[in-house]
Amino acid sequence: MKKTRIDHQQDLIMNLIRPLVRLWMRKDAKRRVTLHDGLSFKRKEPYIMLANHTFLFDVIHVPLRFKNVPFIVASQTLFKKQPTKFLVTQVAHVIPKSKGSSDSTTVRELITAVKKGYPILIFPEGDTTFYGQTNYIETSTMKLIKKLGIDVVTCHVKGGYLSKPRWATGKRRRRQIALDYRITIPKEQIIDLSLDEINQKVVHALYHNDYEYQREVMIPHPGKHLAEGIENVVYVCPHCQAINSIESDGNHIRCNACKHEGFIDTYGFIQNFKFDNLIDWNTYQKQFSSQLRASKIESSGFMNYMSLVDDLLEPVGQVNIVYENKTFTFSGALDLEISVDEIENATITLRRDFGFYWNQKHYLIKLDKFGASLLRIVQDKY
User: Fold this and answer.
1) Residue of 38, 156, 320, 366 with fewest CB within 10 Å of its CB?
2) Tally of CA atoms within 13 A in the half-sphere of 72 that contains its CB
3) Confidence at residue 345, expressed as pLDDT on a 0 to 100 scale
4) Which of these, 199, 198, 205, lies nearest to 157 by C-alpha position?
């Protein structure tokens, strides 16, 4: 299959701007790259590359060294407004995907890209980790691997989460990542593997716990606001079990209910709290799902409609959000009541963009706080 005009345009632009992108990514994070036998950055033959999703810019770091730039599957929200809309439609090879749902159109576009001779890059978790370990991996990826029958390359990304936690509003210095590339499943083996066997190999290759990695390397990431934003991912105090009582200030964490205090150190570990990492804290707080759903939660944010026809954002305005008795009540720019049971495909994109479908409309709200609480009330997948 021949490349289109836009394919050639994007190839040309990517080659021209590659030196600038490399300089940008060096400023973003120092990289240590390991390339295992049988794989070359100059490879021309198509392949499917899978990577664990640790922070926002790993979508740029992971494919950057490959001469034949892959088509990347990315959230459809990047196609909604400038400047990212221009970048993903006119510059980079990007295919939109709606998070949390299968998309036959995405699969068809990926197959077309391979037929044109391009590799493809997928982050099969479908979302960047909020807590520091690899999330649920979408099983639809295994069906695509089976259908394509080409080499499966994996990139194990290490250090990205604690260099730039998704929830954090404060910057870290001395950001460093390690990228480990290998051919995990040669194409000759795919025909003899079941979907479960493919899944086991992929899960094993991509699983990562950034806190375990940090305990080995102990790379400092100093900053003055290391704890800020943590209340968007933790909602149960491990000392008094209060719901949505955690607040942050600078490097410090405090429970408003029992007044327990702690801080995040320069290595990313939590001090003076029951858990020194967010993975264990999150495992603990999942036990309180019924208490969370029985609580009252209040937040605010800016609401948009996302068109189901052309994917454009239509601003609605600032809203207040109250959750109580399995119902979301919105007031301000829009007055609305929505039962939790009627909400479909709820997700959090970027740091705190709460999206969901209701009554044939797609809502996207940039929350001010309590993103994890609101998402967990609707679904437990992420």
Assistant:
1) 38
2) 26
3) 87
4) 205
Would the pLDDT of 134 be above 90? Answer: yes
**What's residue 76's pLDDT?**
63
- Placement of tokens 């495992």 in the chain: 283
Rounded CA separation 27/37 (Å): 29
Question: What phi and psi, each to the nearest 5 degrees, are found at residue 86?
Answer: -65, -45
Give the pLDDT mean for 276-305: 95
What mean pLDDT value characterizes the chain? 90
166 CB-near residues (< 8 Å, 6+ apart): 55, 56, 128, 129, 130, 351
Confidence of residue 21 (pLDDT cuts 50, 70, 90): confident
Count of residues in the chain: 382
Within the chain, residue ranges assigned H as helices are 5-28, 58-61, 84-86, 104-115, 140-148, 160-163, 187-190, 195-206, 210-217, 278-285, 289-294, 371-378
Average pLDDT, stretch 188-215? 97
- Structure tokens of 71? 């088509």
pLDDT of residue 302: 96
Q: Which domains does the chain have, with CATH numbers?
A: 5-217 (3.40.1130), 230-291 (no CATH), 296-378 (2.30.29.30)
Look at 103 and 329; give whichever has higher pLDDT. Answer: 329
State percent of the chain over pLDDT 90: 70
Concatenated DSSP letters for 237-252?
-TTT--BS-EEEETTE
Cβ–Cβ under 8 Å, residues 217 and 269 = no
CA angle, 93 as apex, 88 and 97 as ends, to 5°? 70
Of 35, 7, 355, 5, nearest in space to 183 by CA = 35
Cα Dmax for the chain:
65
Closest CA to 214 of 259, 172, 159: 159
The single-letter DSSP state of residue 116 is T
Q: Which two tokens stand for residue 140?
A: 């639809």
Question: Please, which residues have CB within 8 angstroms of residue 171's CB and are 6 or more apart in sequence?
Answer: 223, 225
> Which tens digits make up the pLDDT trace of 87-127?
656 567 788 776 544 578 888 999 999 999 999 999 998 88
Spatial separation of the C-alpha atoms in residues 380 and 114, rounded to whole Å: 34
pLDDT (0 to 100) of residue 9: 83
